Amino acid sequence: MIAKNAQLxxxxxxxxxxxxxxxxxxxxxxxxxxxxxxxxxxxxxxxVERPPYALSGLERPTHRGAVMGFLHNTGAWxxxxxxxxxxxxxxxxxxxxxxxxxxxxxxxxxxYSIYISDCYHNADKRREGVSEEGELAVLRxxxxxxxxxxxxxxxxxxxxxxxxxxxxxxxxxxxVCTANVAFQSFCVVNKYIGHVLIKLTFATQFVAILxxxxxxxxxxxxxxxxxxxxxxxxxxxxYATKFPKNxxxxxxxxxxxxxxxxxxxSMGFDLGILGLFKPCAExxxxxxxASRLTFGLLP
Length: 299
Ligand SMILES: [Zn+2]
Prior knowledge:
By secondary structure, the chain is mainly alpha-helical. It has 11 helices and 2 strands; from the N terminus they run αββαααααααααα. The protein has one domain (about 1-295): Rhopdopsin 7-helix transmembrane proteins (Up-down Bundle), CATH 1.20.1070. Zinc ion binds near residues 117, 121 and 252.
């Protein structure tokens, strides 16, 4: 009952936020569009200023996009995703289409989101540079990436929970939400109403759909969903409240960290459900796990 009330409060707050906080888009010309970073005060101990966002003219915090840039440029996230899929598919032997698809879809969504976030936040460091057209095109894809992360989690965990009729309905609702986000992003944005409807759809996906799925999970032997929700929840609250604001590392950076944590927790618990960690849990030497994680390179 308390959880249900909390869910309603969270939903009401996010709905209010979607209307109360207008998307900060303006047609104002950005003052600086160069790809080059402007360095103040010489080379030693320099304060590096980055060009503002083209559409909103808002400042770009010093380390904005740092984590996404690292994960994209080093390929670390894509390698981790491939390792997760390889480990999951091995556990799924004989592999079947839908369970395999769910794992691939989960990492495809998070990898797509990381790539898009790098394009959006680090445009000034990328070949394409900062432009209104480029930023708008990437913003549309960014919205879709967030919705896909929520939907692929809903599909995977509904499946892991046994796929009852109510869980199937939640999956269908999540798919409809993602279709709506795609429609709003590519057909309505950059109109104000498009941004508002997308944020309301995110709230529905996170609070009403994934929240209900986790409430169902809480009554099942699989408690993993609670941890996944707990990892994503700070990001959702931070996204809605735009707090804390900081010139170096602000709410948007924390939002990305929270989403990454949610992705990791989801992948980790899924591998647990698939029995990857069983040898360790049963007290058998973890050598076989190490061997599996390193594709047999370790004995
Ligand atoms: Zn972002």
